[in-house]
Amino acid sequence: MPSPAVYRSPRAGATAATVLLAVSAATTLAPLGVGLRLYGEAGDLATGAESDGSALMDTAQLYDNVGYLQLVALAASAVAFVIWFHRVRVNAEVFDPRGHRFKRGWAIGAWFTPVVALWFPRQIAGDIWQAGARPDASGVRPQLPQTLLNLWWATFWISNATGRVGSQYLDSASAQYADGYQQAVGWLIASDLLLVVAAVLAVLVVRGLTAMQEERFTESAAPAFGLHGGTVRG
Predict the structure, then answer these.
(1) How far is CA 124 from CA 89, 95, 186, in A?
(2) Closest Cα to residue 166, out of 181, 187, 190?
(3) Is residue 232 classed as helix, strand or coil in its secondary structure?
(4) Three-state SS for 162?
(5) Helix, strand, coil abundance in the chain, percent, nearest 5
(6) Nearest to residue 119, comparing CAs of 129, 128, 111, 109?
(7) Per-residue pLDDT at 137 exceeds 80
(8) What interhelical angle do 54-95 and 120-131 show, nearest 10?
(9) Do the bridges between strand 227-228 and strand 231-232 make them parallel or antiparallel, or are there none, so unpaired?
(10) pTM
């Protein structure tokens, strides 16, 4: 049996995840900008406007270099996010011990398990979100809208899918020609753009869940300290 859930403030983890997600989004802007330049140069080469492909090769090398920086930032933000995610998952048991479809260990393991990574983390996030709902007088928790979670999750995976398509195009024989190469770069540009949007949505998820849990914990702790309306009752 797992140990009883203990609430710990997710604020530090949320701050780290927010900062690194912002850095990740910022570093993604670099390959996005270089990719747009690369797309234009490939188009020029395809139409014959540029006969020398040396500029394209130089830009392609620059694209690869900034891509390495992007990967490092993505890895760091992913680690910070998963650590925060596990923390809020444990906290959610304090507010609603029975409202979870998966054990708390899946808050980490689901991200690294093939196939189920497509939907397990989203379901866990939904359970955490719903655990923050304020019960009514009869103890029933109203269903909270999860539009933000849906947008974040969809954008994240569409970005991954378009990135894979772009990589497959680059590996194909058609990428040996300027027009095929331009098409592959177009998919990668779309992936980077969606990745920036996903990072922004992830920051909103982190901030929203953290604020919700802190508010619920403050409300639950107030009676224990004799607080009412922000004052100590005599």
Answers:
(1) 8, 15, 33
(2) 187
(3) strand
(4) helix
(5) 75, 0, 25
(6) 111
(7) no
(8) 40
(9) antiparallel
(10) 0.88
Phi and psi for 228 in degrees, rounded to 5? Answer: -150, 120
SS3 146: coil
At 11, list the tokens: 């604020």
CA nearest neighbour of 5 among 67, 98, 82 = 98
Partner residues linked to 232 by β-bridges: 227
Cα–Cα distances in angstroms (integers) from residue 201 to residues 129, 132, 164, in the given order: 15, 19, 21
Which pLDDT band holds residue 136 (cuts at 50, 70, 90)? confident
* Long-range contacts of the stretch 144-152 (C-beta < 8 A, 24+): 148/201, 148/204, 148/205, 148/208, 149/122, 149/125, 149/205, 151/201, 152/198, 152/201, 152/202, 152/204, 152/205
CA 167, 172, 176, 180 torsion-angle sign:
negative
Give ∠ CA 217-218-221 in degrees, rounded to 5: 80
pLDDT of res. 141: 84
Distances (CA, A) of 111 to 105, 125, 161, 165: 11, 12, 16, 21
How many CB atoms sit inside 10 A of residue 41's CB?
A: 23
Structure tokens at 150: 């849906």
108 token code pair: 């980490």
